[in-house]
Amino acid sequence: VQQVFKQLFYMINAVALNNLLLRKDVCSWSTGMQLRFNISQLEEWLRGKNLQQSGAAQTLEPLIQAAQLLQLKKKTSEDAEAICSLCTSLTTQQIVKILNLYTPVNEFEERVTVAFIRDIQMHLQERNDPPQLLLDFKHMFPVLFPFNPSSITMDSIHLPASLNLEFLHKV
């Protein structure tokens, strides 16, 4: 059950983050607030179902960081440093793409300046990020089956003749 929800939450993360990276109309402060609220509801549901050890919440980390990125101030060099230290699960390319797509919804917000985006890129130039922008939503985590040793010893097993396993011999 834990593995199923980890996979499901990864898919939610990948599809939502990919939509954020591809659609200018959703890159805003209010979308960041809405995403963070929805993610907290998912995390609360996991706690309520006692699934916090499943790793499902950790798969949402890139989406959480993207939501926080949409909500942070984006003006000074200190803001750039804060963004770089906060967004460790996002690649440089993803951070820059979200900042380029950021669209103010009202007159109180301002567009992200080109100078600020260059400042972010300078701070993150040492990172060795993979070159892909979008997450692979078809990624599958390996299924792990726990090993439960049997209490039955091998020499107590009787193999019926109807199985046609004469080639097996007890040692």
Q: How would the blueprint of this fold be written?
A:
Layout: H1 2-22, H2 29-48, H3 56-59, H4 61-71, H5 77-86, H6 92-101, H7 114-123
Can you describe this structure?
By secondary structure, the chain is an all-alpha fold. Helix content is 50%, strand content 0%. α5 crosses α7 (114-123). This is MYO5B protein.
In short:
About 50% of the residues lie in helices and about 0% in strands. The protein is mainly alpha-helical.
Tally of separate domains:
1
Estimate what percentage of residues fall within beta strands.
under 5%
Count of discrete alpha- or pi-helical segments spanning 4 or more residues: 7
Low-confidence stretches: none
Mean pLDDT: 93
How much helix is in the residues?
Answer: 40-55%
Work out the oligomeric state of the chains in this entry: single chain
Largest sheet: none
Alpha carbon gyration radius? 24 Å
Helix and strand composition category: mainly alpha
What are its keywords?
elongated, 171 residues, mainly alpha
